[in-house]
Amino acid sequence: MTDGCSLFATKLRAWRAHAGAHGRVTQEMLADMLGVSVDAIGKYERSLSFIRGDLEHRLSEALGWSHDEIVACREDWEARRAAPARGAYRLLDDEVVDAVYNGSWRDAALASIALAIEEFDALPEELAANERVFLPIYDAFRDHWAVVMRGDRMVAKWTLPFLNPEDEELFRTGRLIEADLSLERMRRPILPGTYFGYSPAVVIRRGHEAVGPLLLSSFVSFLETLARREVYLHGMGSISVSLGGAQICRDLGMTRLGTHCLDPGYELWELPGSAIPASIFGRRSPFLRRCYRDVFGS
Predict the structure, then answer these.
(1) Residue-wise over 66-101: b if at least 16 C-beta within 10 A, else e?
(2) Taking 80 as the threshold, does the pLDDT of residue 255 lie above it?
(3) I need a labelling partner for 194 at 20 to 30 A (CA). Which of 36, 40, 131, 165 fits?
(4) Domain HTH cro/C1-type spans what residues (predicted)?
(5) Do 157 and 199 contact (CB within 8 A), yes or no?
């Protein structure tokens, strides 16, 4: 079986974090809802086991998961069992933060910013990752970024804050300057609606390409959590600053819009909401495919 986090584990933890009317649903509460032991929930969330087939219906009845979501989790689990181990990759979570960063999510955020600085050390100041701009954003929007660890080292990450309409226009015309951004200029997805997501960094360390599926699963889970709140992306944009970055954008199904004002080698990429059903995200999640088709058509 592969190491790292299964789709089932990722979705369960995300559901517990957002399903409570007055806060996080505990493992004990979830165990009671599914009619299993707390130990079983712990194993599910550590990717050590999958719910028994005769209990799968409870995921639908108690948690509201669709048939497609349950099948996707089962297929992911079966694929993991059949695949060779790829290394001890796991998503950054409270347990890892406690063990590696002494319980400080702020220190973890600083480390993730340092990862981007390390990987993109030749960028001009206007687009370079920096603590002044991004630490307040990471603090305020903890669900809008994810990191994959190997041991106590960060090896991959994604980030997706939401831009206001004025900054979305700057992005589309190649004039967005990250150094000018601030927490006050980010949109907060409190109410249902459509938003524009901007990714300042997708990082995969060289030699850790096998982490891709886990990084993708974490992003799909993020989009699914938003969709359950009727929050959708009418577009998702990024600026590639390297050949590898441009290839990631292509692999995600993004379309090249043009170039950035700072350097013609920096390219603008976008994935419209209407394209998500046919993208890698829609192929990975039948739930997202259905939701985005309902909202944007196909």
Answers:
(1) eeebbebbbebbeebeeeeebeebbbbbeebbeebb
(2) yes
(3) 131
(4) 12-70
(5) no
Q: Six-digit token pair at 190?
A: 């409190």
* For residues 216-231, average pLDDT: 92
Residue 183 near residue 140 (C-beta atoms within 8 A): yes
Dihedral class, residue 66 (left if φ above 0, else alpha if ψ from -120 to 50, else beta):
beta
- Specify whether the CB–CB gap between 122 and 129 falls below 8 A: no
Coil, strand or helix at 49:
coil
5 pLDDT band, cuts 50/70/90, is confident
> Residue 196, SS3?
strand
The DSSP bridge pattern shows strands 193-199 and 231-240 to be parallel
What would the pLDDT profile of 81-125 be if each residue is shown by its tens digit?
765 444 478 899 888 899 999 999 999 999 999 999 888 878 899
Contact criterion met (CB below 8 Å) for 30 and 12: yes
pTM for the complete prediction?
Answer: 0.74
Q: Is the dihedral of CA 8, 9, 10, 12 positive or negative?
A: positive
pLDDT tens digits, one per residue of 103-114: 999 999 999 999
